[in-house]
Amino acid sequence: MKPDDFLPRPDQVKTFATQPHATPLYLTSVWECESPAQADAMLGGQEPGYVYQRDGHPNGAALAAKLNELEQAPHGMVVASGMAAISVPLLATVAQGEHVVTASRVYGKTLQLLNAEASRLGISLTVVDTNDLAAVAAAMNEKTKLVIAETIANPLLQVADIAALAEITHRGGARLLVDNTFASPLVCKPLELGADIVMESLTKTLNGHSDVLLGYLGCRTDIWPRVKQVVSAWGFSASPFDCWLAARGLATAHLRLERACSNALRAAEFLSQRREVERVEYPGLAVHPQHAIAKRQFVGPTGPQFGTMVAFQLKGGRAAADKFITAAKDIPFCPSLGELSTTLSHPETTSHRGLTPEGRAALGITGGTIRLSVGTETPEFVCSSLATALMQT
Ligand SMILES: *Cc1c(COP(=O)(O)O)cnc(C)c1O
């Protein structure tokens, strides 16, 4: 035996007489090319195919293709996390000396990215209430390249008027990036409403099984070459295994979402009638300040769905929240969302703990604020679990 016989060589099984029914997992960092001309054409993007995993792989492409269809996105890519899917458009569209406008109600890490990281690259920032359209227009200047908003904002679930924001953004010569994580493309399709870039944290509802960290961004044709370049050069690429798992989660997302959205509406109506509860926030309730916008923008199999997130304020404040969370044995305190089961979070001590008490008060968050991510159980189970916990407050 020659020493080289011990080198690990892949089995050269390239084709089968029958095709696999489930998507195979392609764990290969590099592909064997037939010729320099082929490698050149693939790396240059003139020919489809794979050369190196950081530039693309079949599991990422299969997942992105499904998401592109759901989002009505001409182009899209799966990246390592939701935060990567926000970093990529930032790096792809904004340069040193330029300016970003962001909604004040965005994911905490998004604000940190813009405040602490983008500022180091010489990118300036204005934070506004994006439900105040005049304030958004006033915040824009000739250096503004990107406006960022969430379809449904954390934690009090204000709904952005995406078409109006897109109009203001485009009038100012900038692009609109919409974080659609709280809605998902099964509830809202921001690109159809005029946004230029949409992102999803696949970690949440779209994968839906609490086992993957992954992000997606979809965009229009003009910035697609920059997006591909940024993902490959900065190394934001997603792993094939995570994409494979998320594709499996995505296959049932429409069923999970339909159940969870109808449960969320039931839970919101139930909570609205409880004397322990001061206020309920859910875009599907007629009293929600942006209910009309939500009805116009949101979609579903039989009319608009309003998402799986419900927030409410307990009358007894922080003391009542502590008792509620301890008593809610069937609703785990998990500071994330979009799991199979109903979970709850306490914004004051988790997602918004980095803000001052005044900063939280300005967003409407108190010690008694509870954020529910409603799951796929039966509606009776969700409401009776809430009732049991409310009785202890
Ligand atoms: C979780 C989340 C993100 C970040 O996604 P990761 O996958 O955790 O990086 C961004 N925006 C919203 C609204 C989120 O809920």
Secondary structure blueprint with pairings:
Elements: H1 36-43, H2 58-71, E1 75-79, H3 82-93, E2 99-103, H4 108-117, E3 124-128, H5 133-139, E4 144-150, H6 162-171, E5 175-179, E6 197-201, E7 215-219, H7 224-234, H8 240-250, H9 253-272, E8 277-281, H10 291-297, E9 309-314, H11 317-327, E10 343-345, H12 357-363, E11 369-373, H13 379-390
Parallel strand pairs: 2-3, 2-4, 4-5, 5-6
Antiparallel strand pairs: 1-7, 6-7, 8-9, 9-11, 10-11
The structure holds pyridoxal-5'-phosphate (PLP).
Task: Explain this structure.
This protein has 393 residues and is α/β, with parallel strands linked by helices. The protein folds into two domains: 215 residues, Aspartate Aminotransferase, domain 2 (3-Layer(aba) Sandwich), CATH 3.40.640; 138 residues, Alpha-Beta Complex (Aspartate Aminotransferase, domain 1). The protein is built from 13 helices and eleven strands. The strands form two sheets. It has a seven-stranded mixed sheet with strand order 1-7-6-5-4-2-3, with helices on both faces. The protein has a four-stranded antiparallel sheet with strand order 8-9-11-10. Strand 4, helix 6 and strand 5 form a beta-alpha-beta unit. The longest helix has 20 residues. It is globular and about 80 Å long. The chain starts with 35 loop residues before the first helix and ends with a helix. 46% of the residues are buried. The model has no long low-confidence stretch (mean pLDDT 95).
